[in-house]
Amino acid sequence: MKIERIQTIVTCPGRNFVTVKVMTDQGVYGLGDATLNGRELAVSAYLDAHVIPCLIGRDPRCIEDIWQYLYRGAYWRRGPVTMTAIAAIDMALWDILGKLANMPVYQLLGGKSRQRLLVYGHANGRDHEEAVDAVHRHIAEGFKAIRVQSGVPGLSKVYGVGKQPGHYEPAEKGLPPEEPWDTALYLRHTPELFRKVRDAIGFEPHLLHDAHHRLTPIEAARLGKALEPFSLFWLEDATPAEDQDAFRLIRQHTTTPLAVGEVFNSIWDCKDLIGNQLIDFIRTTIVHAGGITHVRRIADFAAMHQVRTGFHGATDLSPVCMAAAVNFGLWAPNFGIQELMPHNALTDEVFPHNYRFEDGYLVMDEVPGLGVEIDEALAARYPYERAYLPVARLRDGSMWNW
Ligand code: CS2
Ligand code: MG
């Protein structure tokens, strides 16, 4: 059995997605997500120029060997572009293997550890009142876990909050917009937000919050401590984690559980964080961290240290990645929670998928492979459109973390 052809498909049904389709000489094909928000064309170029030509003629069932070939064999290891490209091929090969075995990928990984996956949705508002309303809406929709973000008085725009209530998409068409940031305002405001939410809904639904890498370690420690009375499920991306040791300081000051890793691309990015039990949830995703083959290594390592998974699931991870995440989560013994930011209706049409939301959980049927498709004719009607995440600046003009 041989890989005959690999196609990269770039489409923008409301936002940009890159997908690989690996075709075999036996008619079976597999899909993989290769979307790297704001750097989409770097991954498709890397695949087209440097990965795909090397894979034609290889046996698609040699998933591990192809992974090692693309990682070790390239000499240049890691990095988001490389690891996203490897992830896309890896996902597609697991999809093929599942179709050949006539089994879902979760069966190939070792079978179901659970029947359904707890998910969290995004409640956001331009102010506290709108955020509380959004939490009520999520509870009515069946969510058992809700991330809460709110605008900050004095800041014209804040990450995680849409222009109008409801849908939020972090990337914007055109060149990167600039947004102001002021940590002092945010720190004053955020504990009050959670007090209002807990007063309104009580302690039953899980609440989560994303600090989006904006804080220094000591500021993050202060926030974690201030949020303790509101019993958060997690505080996410409290500080940038290139310096993994930074989390030690936060950990020493607060019992608020910590999650990090949506921008990580390999096990080396979280080795100390997990090994020293400095975090509680690892957020690395299948699309950005080398696919199922590599993320399985991260999850197994995390399990040894009582760290659970809490994968990134924003709109820039395509339904192909979400399908892989659902298969993975059904298997992973240390699954924790899955982020769910629903795609728009057109994206769901371009990528028909089997997974679905039911009463606060994601479920899927016993379908072969990943359980996701691409409507290529529809995808072709929506070509790439330049779009970027915003950038953040402090009030004096300094660049800050977005
Ligand atoms: C966010 C994302 O979902 C999250 O937790 O941090 O919206 C993130 O900003 C984007 O996915 C970046 O690509
Ligand atoms: Mg985040």
Automatic annotation (TrEMBL):
Mandelate racemase/muconate lactonizing enzyme C-terminal domain span: 128-257
SUPFAM superfamilies named among the record's database cross-references: Enolase C-terminal domain-like (SSF51604), Enolase N-terminal domain-like (SSF54826)
Pfam families: MR_MLE_C, MR_MLE_N
Classification via Gene3D superfamilies: Enolase-like C-terminal domain, Enolase-like, N-terminal domain
PROSITE patterns xref list: MR_MLE_1
Biological processes, Gene Ontology terms: amino acid catabolic process; carbohydrate catabolic process
Coiled-coil regions listed: none
Any one Gene Ontology molecular-function term assigned to this protein's record: magnesium ion binding
Stored InterPro entries: D-mannonate_dehydratase-like, DgoD-like, Enolase-like_C_sf, Enolase-like_N, Enolase_C-like, Mandel_Rmase/mucon_lact_enz_CS, Mandelate_racemase_C, Mandelate_racemase_N_dom
Entries under PANTHER family matching the protein: D-GALACTONATE DEHYDRATASE-RELATED, STARVATION-SENSING PROTEIN RSPA
UniProt name for this protein: D-galactonate dehydratase family protein
Organism: Cupriavidus oxalaticus
